[in-house]
Design a protein that fits this description.
The complex is a heterodimer of chains A (545) and B (335). Chain A is mainly beta and 545 residues long. Chain A contains 3 helices and 45 strands. The radius of gyration of chain A is 33 Å and the shape is elongated. By secondary structure, chain B is mainly alpha-helical. The chains are: A mainly beta (545), B mainly alpha (335). The interface between A and B is large, with 61 and 43 residues.
Chain lengths: 545, 335
């Protein structure tokens, strides 16, 4: 039998051909390199500003009162014309006065067809006491060494190295790592901030200072003796500590998704989240949930989850479960007791809850399957999908759609902006959206029920069984007296039109089938349609597996 | 409430607007409630409209002359007696008349549906009148020579005012509001359609169609095309900036995210503005997704987008999910 894992010969040939082509293309690119050197007078109390969008920047402090610049200028292109174009479009500018020097490399018009690229790397020597400002976009690396003045560095990608900088430091990156190394204990403040990179600060073991650290997804590591903790409010992300009993200077390290480590060289690092009480909230339980996630998604959820990684993931919990996290998605296959889940940012996915279910996200979608107890679900932003709220409850989103397949108890639905769809309700319904449509279908067994629906800039569609009895009050507020209208397949409405505040109010008041519970429908700039049809019996869930 | 049979008898009166106010209101209410009468009414109205749109065929000169001659023959006859003797009309005659009407109306409807406007071999032309493009305007002053003497259908004419003759010219004027239904057809990229759509998006006073539906139509129509007109992008940007409804603004962002990035500057500015100022976090999250897509598909690095995302990622009082989304978007931007 032939082994099945081997590549098909034709496919293999294609791959080889593709690789050969790529190699040939790579060989075809040519380079132009030029080394430039310039020395100018520079006041030791002066300021140097460097703007270099693409390329490395190395600045080193010396005892000379001279600005010594060496620039390696490399242009790569597909042919000579492209290289010539790249050279034409690149300018290096050195200006200013002996007190304030400006060094800029400018790409006048970037290559739109990628036929050429340019990189300028600077090796600069400056008087040690000057202030240095560097702005870069994609740097192969920024390195500042032996500077006693203030240093301000900003880039998009690429690492930032700060070695033996004595002055005030402010380093700000988007995707780059930041490394700061102090040979002597820091004496002035430093602010190190990166969005997606890591931060590593190395100090002498006896350095004393105050450390403010913040990370959303990462961890804090240290090898220094310190005292501190998170602030007390839930979900706090800032860790404050006194290192070696110090109160100043302040070292501030901020990263959104990266890791922060502060310590002495050679000493073992310890995680602050893993030790002591950690961040306010719960531990992060992890199980292999791949099969469970697939099964829950196929059988219990209305929509597949958007998240694929979770800070808490459990297949089955026998009993109650409470979990709180400042950031991250949560997946629970089944909770046999009550569930109480909070995330300050992330998606919550739960297959089945035997008891009551209280889920809250300050931002992120909610995706829930079969909830046997009362459901309380809220999010500040995102869609909410619920297969079954068997005892009803309340569901709210400040922005997004609310979609519930079945509500077996009184339910309140709210959307700050989005549609509300309730496919099958057997009990009282309150629903309101600030902009969107509302569609509600009452179960075929319902003879009379209280319904209160309110929509702005959207339509209301209410589906009721043919024998449904109610006292009905329908209102449309509209800017046109002909466009919006009330339609009802059940007789018994009297339509009244009048003017309120310069707008037309259309009211349909009356009784369906002799009257019953109150049905109040209100639409602003939308239509109201009451349908009465024999809806097929709803099967909320497939048989339990 | 009137029954259906009585109502159907009123439909011709309603159509020709010869019904009294109370009857009209009652009939309209019944139509709103009764599906079969609604269908009947729509059919009546469409038939009437189609009849109005049928081309008028000029009477041949020979037939006209023959008709005039017949009239001529009748005119010198002795005066007709003022009293006409009553003659019972046989039922067959009523039936044949009714059948003729049905055939005429049905046939016209059928022809109207099946046949297109005939293309004449030699196009009719009127010398001396310049052909101006039809423009949708709030007010318009037209010389009588630019207005066809033929009034099609039964347009509603209201607020009629008569203007006195000007000294010298002798021209008089009739000013009025007219309600007419206009269908503009063309390619989605036609300037007139783009302009009209932009106007509809930004001047929403048509409750027949919600703004969300309009935006959805824009998304479906322009999302799959290679280039979206900057006017459409600008209109969406205005909706995103000015609409008070969160759901509408979310749809506007989603549409800006879906349409091609050729008009990126306007879209980018609107999205940055929304990310900075929109009070709803769901709108801000959608704006981040759209900005990240623009940054990925754009051919140049946009510092304003990166700065805004960076600001949001680091803003301590921002919704945490928005911050995380901004950080994720930044990590996906290639330079």
């Amino acid at each position: 039998m032939k082994p099945k894992h081997l590549l098909h010969p034709a496919l293999l040939a294609l791959v080889v051909l593709g690789l050969a082509n790529t190699a040939a293309e790579a060989q075809q690119r040519r380079s132009f390199a030029q080394k430039l050197n310039k020395q100018v007078a520079f006041d030791p109390r002066g300021t140097l500003v460097i703007e270099n969008p693409l390329g490395a920047v190395n600045v080193e402090g010396t005892s000379e009162s001279v600005l010594d610049i060496t620039a390696n200028w490399v242009v790569t292109g597909v042919d000579d014309a492209a290289i010539a174009e790249g050279r034409r479009q690149t300018q290096i500018y050195l200006g200013g006065t002996p007190e304030n020097r400006l060094l800029r490399s400018v790409i006048v018009q970037p290559s739109r067809d990628q036929s050429w690229s340019v990189s300028v790397s600077y090796f600069i020597k400056v008087p040690r006491s000057v202030h240095v400002n560097v702005v870069s976009r994609s740097s192969e690396g920024i390195s500042i060494s032996r500077i006693s003045g203030n240093v301000n560095v900003r880039n998009m990608t690429g690492p930032i190295h700060l070695n033996s900088v004595i002055g005030l430091i402010r380093a700000d990156s988007v995707n780059g790592d930041i490394y700061a190394t102090y040979k002597l204990p820091p004496t002035v403040n430093a602010i190190l901030s990166t969005v997606n990179g890591h931060i590593q600060v190395t100090t002498p073991s006896d350095a004393s200072f105050t450390w403010h650290a913040e990370t959303l997804k990462g961890d804090f590591l240290t090898s220094l003796p310190l005292r501190g903790g998170f602030s007390r409010h839930p979900g706090a992300t800032v860790y404050r500590a006194s290192v070696n009993g110090g109160t100043s200077p302040i070292l501030q390290t901020v990263t959104m998704t990266g890791r922060v480590s502060v310590g002495a060289e050679g000493l073992p690092m310890q995680s602050l989240l893993a030790s002591t009480q950690g961040r306010p909230g719960s531990a992060m339980p992890q199980e292999d949930v791949t099969p469970s996630l697939q099964r829950v998604s196929d059988t219990l959820l209305v929509q597949p989850p958007t998240a694929s990684s979770f800070v808490a993931q459990r297949n089955l919990i026998n009993g109650n479960y409470k979990f709180e996290t400042s950031l991250g998605n949560v997946f629970l296959g089944e909770v046999r007791g009550n569930a109480d889940i909070t995330t300050r940012a992330g998606e919550i996915v739960i297959g089945r809850v035997g008891g009551s279910c209280d889920v809250s996200s300050l931002g992120g979608p909610l995706n829930l399957g079969d909830i046997h107890g009362v459901l309380t679900a809220s999010t500040a932003a995102g869609h909410v999908h619920v297969r079954a709220a068997r005892k009803g409850g309340s569901i709210s989103t400040d922005g997004g759609n609310v979609h519930v397949v079945h509500a077996g108890g009184p339910i309140t639905l709210h959307s700050g902006g989005g549609d509300i769809i309730l496919q099958n309700a057997t009990s009282r319904v309150n629903a309101e959206t600030k902009s969107g449509d509302i569609s509600l279908t009452l179960d075929r067994t319902v003879r009379s029920q209280t319904v209160n629906l309110r929509s702005v800039d959207g339509n209301i569609v209410l589906n009721v069984p043919p024998g449904f009895a109610a006292d009905v009050d329908i209102t449309i507020i509209t800017s046109s007296d002909v466009a919006n209208r009330i339609q009802s397949q059940l007789p018994g409405l009297s339509i009244i039109r009048d003017q309120v505040g310069g707008r037309t109010r259309i009211r349909g008041v009356g009784k369906f089938n002799g009257g019953g519970q109150k049905v109040t429908l209100m639409a602003e700039d939308g239509n109201v349609h009451v349908r009465s049809e024999n809806t097929p019996q709803m099967v909320v869930l497939p048989p339990r597996q | 409430m009137v029954d259906c049979t009585a109502l159907k008898e009123r439909l011709p009166d309603l159509l020709t607007e010869t019904i009294d106010k109370a009857g009209r209101e009652e009939t309209h209410r019944h139509i709103e409630d009764c599906e079969s009468c609604q269908l009947e009414w729509i059919a009546y109205r469409d038939t009437w409209r189609i009849l109005g749109e049928l081309p008028e065929v000029a009477v041949p000169a020979r037939a006209k002359a023959r008709f005039a001659a017949e009239i001529e023959k009748l005119s010198p006859v002795a005066p007709v007696a003022p009293v006409v003797a009553f003659r019972h009309r046989p039922i067959a005659r009523w039936l044949s008349q009714a059948a003729a009407v049905v055939v005429l109306v049905g046939g016209s409807f059928f022809l109207g549906q099946r046949t297109s406007v005939p293309e004449y071999q030699t196009a009719a032309s009127i010398d001396g009148v310049s052909s101006l493009p039809f423009s949708i305007a709030e007010t318009r002053v037209l010389p009588a020579s630019d207005v066809s003497p033929e009034i099609q259908g039964r347009p509603q004419i209201q607020n009629v005012r008569f203007l006195e003759a000007k000294s010298g010219s002798g021209d008089v004027g009739i000013a009025f509001d007219v309600t007419s239904h206009v269908t503009v057809t063309g390619k989605p990229e036609d300037k007139s359609l783009v302009s009209l759509l932009s106007y509809v998006l930004q001047n929403h006073d048509n409750p027949n169609l919600s703004r969300s539906d309009t935006i959805e139509w824009v998304r479906e129509t322009y999302g799959s095309r290679g280039v979206a007109d900057p006017a459409i992008v600008k209109a969406l940007a205005n909706v995103l900036k000015n609409d008070t409804h969160e759901g509408v603004r979310i749809k506007a962002v989603e549409t800006l995210n879906d349409i091609p990035p050729a008009s990126a500057p306007e879209a980018r500015l609107a999205l940055i503005e929304a990310l900075r100022n929109d009070p709803n976090p769901a709108v801000r999250i959608k704006a981040i997704e759209a900005l990240a897509n623009l940054a990925k598909s754009g051919d140049s690095y946009d510092p304003a987008t990166v700065d805004m995302l960076r600001e949001k990622a680091s803003q301590p009082d921002e919704n945490l999910y928005v911050r995380v989304k901004a950080a994720e978007a930044l990590s996906q931007i290639n330079l």
